[in-house]
Amino acid sequence: MGRVRRTALAGAAALGLAAAALPGAAHAGEQAPQPVPTYRAAKGAKAVEGQPSTADAPLLEAGNIYEDTLAPGERVYRLVLKKDQSNVYVSAVARPAPGAKVSYGDGIAVEIMNTAGTSCPGSAGSSSLGYNPALVSAAGVRWGVEDHDCAPAGVYYAKVTRTSAKGSDPSPWPLELRVQREPGRGPGGPTAAPSAWPSGTPAALPGTEAVGRTGGTGFNDARAVDAGVWRDELRPGQTRFYRVPLDWGQQLGLSAELAKAKMTKQFGAASGGLVVSLYSPYRDPVMAEDTSYDGKQAGITLEKTPPVAYENRYASDPDVQPVGIAGWYYIAVTMGAKVAEFTEDATPVPLTLRMEVTGTPAKAPAYTESLAAGGFGVGDADRAAAKEGLTAPEAAQAAGKHSAMRVVAGAGFGTGTLLLLVLGGWILLARRGRGATAG
Fold this sequence. Notes:
This protein is α+β, with helices and mostly antiparallel strands and 439 residues long. It contains 2 helices and 19 strands.
């Protein structure tokens, strides 16, 4: 059986996915701009406190989201896993404070270890920052199917490491941890990387009229989108998050454009003024690109993803490995904070996303259980959410209302039927009563 090899994707979030803007210079007599919205934490996240060693490391369980803080150094968490060929993904999302001093030497890494302290083969993932405060995400994996070394049942540890460059702000970062379980695969599945796949720059992204879709602040409230042209807006230092469902066999083509800003200086330019990043359904960086922005126009077109396929996880290319499971893929678009040095911070800049989703959904691999419990796969509800532009909380609320309406409708039908039966009984008894009296 082939062994998965994952190369750490350093710099995938280069120049940052900022959670809040640095204040721009206000004109005389003008009110300072309001801060941009901060990251929306997961509802119901459980508080934990990671330890610097395996001793007393808190337990993390699949299907849950946890919150902690992360200072420079290591934090360790405990996992209790079964020998069921399942793959377990532990993602870590860290958020530097607005205005914190950071650099390319700052970032996080996640790896899975056994009780001997040996890293599970191919388990480590990492990501680094740029020169702005940023959201940074990475994931570690226990490959229960592909790697026999970490397949046995028992205790494992997830180690999250924060690196900090000299002179960077050492203040703790809020940390969000998510544990997802991909069930075991049935017999006869692929065990080697694909030999080739359609790749390259998208040939012709759509040019239709844009439809408004306001992106979220992070993974938890990312706005659903699908193939088409979408319009939003950004301020300096702000990131918008979107999510798109990609089924087995489908590819994503994507571009982002920043239009003209309201200038406060005749000339200006910000390296990394526009950053576009793509993440997997388990929050692992897939690819990222950045470009400078001069306040007039900027655009980025990402390479098409490979078709979503189980065997992609065996590839040596870090842009291919994470595209190995169907589900929600996340898009983050950032305007660099330095753009505020030559534009009016309070005036948002129009953002246009052009997206194509190609490929007919293919048959899923033979899993022993449903993927949906782990937050994977694409179903009818996901496609409906993408069509309607719903965030995950909005989709859950809509599903709850739909279920409640079905209960009410069912109850109403039952009550109405009961009333008709009772009324019919009364009429029958009345008729019988009249007949007896007449006799």
